[in-house]
């Protein structure tokens, strides 16, 4: 998922209670079939294997994403899904991938460096060997001292925000406790239309944004000075490093310098040596490729068509983003969610379900750059959140279910401020209380594709998932690999999603909606 | 420290109580000076920086170790220590270092590999590119199917012992709890002369040793088939990998194939692809150097000479091993212990201490290959544990203190079955109870250089240290770097060691001894 705060609940003045107006129907016979297929004949790990180990990193518009999209379409067709297509959602920009990465310090001794080229940065045009120049600058004026000294050099920024590593005495992997779930269940309703607090309201975030702006200016100067390679600090530890947003993917993006995001241990080792006045030399060879033949972005779409005369034009949607960052193979972000959603479709198809409403899966792209795939799809099909001009189809989508919080099993669902759906979800979760899914929170969660639907008044939901090592180790890191996927968790999630989709499809009435949002010029 | 079980207490039938025959003297004025210098003017992190970031990996007889040894001698001389020398302890064999490491999969997609050449293995003689051949074999006969198919190929062993990764819900870093320390304090005395249980007694260890033996046979076959590069699985996760013993460092060691220890994520990704029948291609370039001009192994020795007419020929020794494995910079294993012991010497010198007995520090080498440095030193100066023929000097060493369990602060000391020293240590720890050091256990600990002294009847002790991330992340890993060192812990440890050494030097009587061990033909 995109890197913004996930669980944001703006507190309402008055406490909130779910009111079940009528007992919501649960089809236990169908649930039993779904459970049997989902928990005993699961294919979810095979699906995840194809997306990660086989396809590789799936950065937006990269060859890896294209491979994964082609495989998904083939798989959907093999299962007999209908209207399988790669649907353009709009213009994205350039694809990019790493073709070679090699880097090591050679003085004072040889040591290979754990790092990754920053997304959408160029290569080094062959092997570069250089002493590393330490740039002690927090702002552009401080850069003047380096004028004329950087051409062809490998440079590293030193600045006041860099901290040495500190020990954590907490486990990397965690599940929600009963207490935490209980707190979520008792959360108060968010103010209707409330957004997550603006980034600048958070002092740490504000400082980061200011630094990032300064860094962009300084990086531009580095480019003008024709430095050969920039080393930047990547958050993380013990060999895990997190990638951040890379250079621009726009077709007309200005040229930038080659840039490596360096794991903390290697970065700090070099930094300490340079700060101590030691000479550090380095060699590196980076090759990257850009792909601009087709700048359009695509989602993979497939359906199980509805069969009820009156309801078949209505749609239940489910999905997750399929694109990833490039330093890992995007296993928890978000092969996990994509595989679960595919597996839910497979389960429903395998049990021979003939849904009343049409069931449609979407594997979004370019979520990581701003939910572009889902927002583009919603804009094209359902309406524009800037103006709130809606299409006729907007009314036909009864709900959208999303999964994008890692490998952790579904423990419940965010009702996203929709008081009408909460008691319904509570009933639907009952057959899964034994596998630890039970919590409905009225609270919001952000950061991922359900927001695109929510923004135009379509009920869009993300499930509550056990956190596992998502925030500590995998979310956008080089260690987001298949190894992090927990089979039982994904199996449970797929089973629960299949049952939710089943019930949504069969429900007499569409899912309750909240008041339409006001037009939002920001478009989100 | 060497990789064998650390805390081994063979239980005696009868409980054990310390009996303080007379109140042991504590010189509080001296302790105050030591604390002030050690806790307020510490240089221990600077010393550790020189050993790790500046010197680099310190594999036995490597250029890195030589750099670090030269620096230590220079430092000892600058402090005004006496008899500073690089003293040969015997013949070690070849030195070795990595001069280039590069590896990546290129099919089905490009991905760099986190790995390290195995110690004392040769390079690839240029760039090697090959499909990876999966060798499904647990034993030599199963190798026959690959006859004639491996020349120049990159090969990977698949076998029944390889497991996919599993989540840990425990913290990587931990400190001892009061409960754990209390248990140690109440431990019963080990049976005199008891050894740690033989490796084969542990089923997992026995299986590992059997597999290792089979692997050696199979690896020899690989060599005969002229395979280009072997990939082996390295324990660890999230980018941390642990190195194991490498090829032989003997001058006459037979030729072996180039071999990479591959981080679990990269190894398992390739393995899963190969098991699924996917083609995986790889490129690699490895250069290593061997150093056989001087096969002798050396320890660094330095002294603060004794000043008491009667006692100055007696010696208090302190030390730790200085050599490391090659994939990290040997920070917790054992720059930590080496820096603490050096700092203890600096503290004693700085406060102007004129000891009664001579104080001698030793920075051992080749501990990782079998405590060779300390054992060679002991054999040369004090006696032969095989025959128990002892020198006159054996009686003159009143105690040896060792540190080699990582960065964790000293929380107490292992009395190593010596009931006489326990009440003495208890008194000496009292001025440090406020900085959380208080526990004396009668129990043994193994795996490091105090055993060399213990084996010839010289009281040799290792301190109890907080475990921190030693077993989970750093011990022999690529992530054993300066980042893992905790300043406050090292400062406290150095202060406590300095006080122990001080009191040992000033004590009227030498430290109590246990009964002499029986001759041990195994020599340890």
UniProtKB/TrEMBL annotation, chains A, B:
Superkingdom per UniProt: Bacteria
Alphabetized, the UniProt keywords read: Carboxypeptidase, Endoplasmic reticulum, Glycoprotein, Golgi apparatus, Hydrolase, Lysosome, Metal-binding, Metalloprotease, Protease, Secreted, Signal, Zinc, Zymogen
Q: Where is the Peptidase M28 domain?
A: 299-501
**What Gene Ontology biological process does one annotation of this record name?**
proteolysis
Its main subcellular localisation, reduced to a broad class, is: endoplasmic reticulum
Q: Does the keyword tRNA-binding apply?
A: no
Location(s), subcellular? Endoplasmic reticulum; Golgi apparatus; Lysosome; Secreted
Q: Which InterPro entries match?
A: CPQ (IPR039866), Peptidase_M28 (IPR007484)
Q: Which GO terms describe its molecular function?
A: carboxypeptidase activity; metal ion binding; metallodipeptidase activity
* Subunit and partners: Homodimer. The monomeric form is inactive while the homodimer is active.
Q: Identify this protein by name.
A: Carboxypeptidase Q
Organism taxonomic ancestry: Bacteria, Pseudomonadati, Bacteroidota, Sphingobacteriia, Sphingobacteriales
């Amino acid at each position: 998922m995109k890197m913004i705060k996930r669980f944001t609940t703006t507190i309402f003045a008055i406490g909130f209670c779910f009111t079940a107006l009528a007992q919501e129907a649960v089809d236990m016979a169908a649930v039993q079939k779904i459970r049997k297929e989902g928990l005993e004949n699961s294919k979810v790990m095979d699906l995840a294997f194809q997306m990660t180990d086989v396809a590789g990193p799936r950065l937006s518009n990269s060859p890896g994403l294209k491979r994964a999209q082609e495989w998904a379409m083939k798989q959907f067709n093999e299962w007999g899904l209908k209207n399988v297509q790669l649907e353009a959602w709009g213009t994205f920009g350039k694809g990019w991938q790493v073709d070679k990465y090699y880097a090591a310090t050679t003085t004072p001794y040889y040591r290979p460096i754990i790092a990754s080229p920053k997304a959408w940065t160029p290569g080094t045009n062959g092997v570069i060997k250089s002493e590393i120049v330490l740039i002690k600058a927090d702002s552009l004026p401080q850069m003047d001292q380096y004028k004329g000294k950087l051409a062809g050099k490998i440079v590293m920024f030193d600045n006041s925000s860099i901290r040495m590593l500190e020990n954590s005495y907490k486990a990397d992997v965690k599940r929600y406790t009963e207490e935490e779930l209980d707190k979520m269940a008792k959360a108060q309703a968010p103010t209707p239309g409330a957004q997550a607090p603006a980034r600048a309201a958070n002092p740490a975030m504000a400082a980061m944004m200011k630094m990032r702006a300064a860094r962009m200016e300084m990086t531009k100067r580095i480019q003008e000075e024709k430095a050969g390679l920039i080393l930047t600090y990547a958050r993380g530890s013990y060999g895990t490093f997190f990638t951040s947003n890379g250079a621009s993917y726009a077709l007309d993006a200005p040229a930038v310098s080659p840039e490596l995001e360096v794991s903390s241990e290697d970065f700090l080792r070099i930094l300490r040596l340079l700060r101590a006045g030691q000479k550090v030399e380095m060699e590196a060879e980076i090759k990257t490729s850009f792909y601009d033949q087709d700048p359009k972005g695509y989602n993979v779409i497939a359906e199980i068509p509805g069969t009820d005369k009156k309801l078949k034009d209505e749609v239940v949607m489910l999905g997750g983003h399929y694109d990833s960052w490039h330093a890992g193979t995007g296993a928890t972000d978000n092969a996990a969610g994509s595989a679960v959603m595919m597996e839910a479709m497979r389960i429903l198809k395998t049990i021979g379900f003939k849904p009343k409403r049409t069931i449609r899966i979407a594997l979004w792209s370019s979520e990581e750059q701003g939910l572009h795939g889902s927002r583009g799809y919603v804009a094209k099909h359902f309406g524009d959140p800037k103006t709130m001009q809606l299409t006729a189809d907007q009314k036909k989508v009864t709900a959208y279910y999303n999964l994008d919080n890692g490998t952790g099993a579904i423990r419940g669902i965010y009702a996203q401020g929709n008081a009408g759906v909460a008691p319904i979800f509570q009933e639907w979760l009952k057959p899964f209380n034994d596998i630890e899914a039970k919590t409905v929170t009225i609270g919001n969660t952000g950061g991922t594709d359900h927001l695109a639907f929510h923004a135009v008044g379509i009920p869009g939901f993300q499930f509550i998932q056990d956190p596992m090592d998502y925030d500590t180790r995998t979310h956008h890191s080089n260690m987001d690999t298949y190894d992090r996927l927990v089979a039982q968790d994904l199996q449970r999630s797929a089973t629960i999603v299949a049952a939710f989709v089943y019930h949504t499809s069969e429900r007499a009435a569409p899912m309750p909606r909240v008041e339409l949002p006001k037009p939002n010029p920001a478009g989100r």
